[in-house]
Amino acid sequence: MGRRIAAAWLTLGVLALSLCAFAPAASARTITLTKNERTLLALINKARTSRDLHAVSLNKYLYYAAKAHSRQMISKSYFSHDSKAGESFSKRIVRYGYSRTGYSSWSVGEVIGYGKGMLGTPQAIFKAWMKDAAHRKVILAKRWRDVGVGQATGTFKGVSNVQMYTVDFGRRVD
């Protein structure tokens, strides 16, 4: 009897794994922003709306692309819009589900930043971005409607407790 029960659990386990393999990863998960991610999103929208621009709305595909990129930069100790293997940020965003298919217009943009302690707060990162013309231009681009904010904490290039941020912006028009 013990073997039958074990075999039944094994069969159920394999079946569950098989069903999970066919489920789209991004749609099965819910978004739970960290406090830092929520703060950064609020700062971005405050800057945009104070300039009569549309507030950006959280998009799950952009969120997962941004979150994964921040985690990867921490775990592989590099800082770039491209992945360690050379994949561009736009290809990463498409791979995470922010598809071009079915839209007459598609555009994406990205800002990244990191810091430790007071220099790693969302406020400090945002302030640095807004002081830089190129970053400010991306954040305040009129076209954006969607956003993903991803933050990760870890050891970066031998320094512990570094906060890494990726913000992916997008717009798709039917």
Quick recap of the structure?
The chain has 174 residues and is α+β, with helices and mostly antiparallel strands.
Provide an overview of this structure.
This protein is 47% helix and 23% strand. The protein has helices at 2-22, 25-28, 35-49, 60-76, 89-95, 122-131, 133-139, and strands at 57-58, 105-116, 146-156, 159-173. It has a four-stranded mixed sheet with strand order 1-3-4-2, with helices on both faces. Strand 3 and strand 4 (159-173) form a beta hairpin. Helix 4 (60-76) crosses helix 5. The protein is globular and about 45 Å long. It has seven helices and four strands. It has 174 residues and is an alpha+beta fold. The longest helix is centred in the first third of the chain and has 21 residues, at 2-22.
Topology:
Blueprint: H1 2-22, H2 25-28, H3 35-49, E1 57-58, H4 60-76, H5 89-95, E2 105-116, H6 122-131, H7 133-139, E3 146-156, E4 159-173
Parallel strand pairs: 1-3
Antiparallel strand pairs: 2-4, 3-4
Helix pairs in contact: 4-5
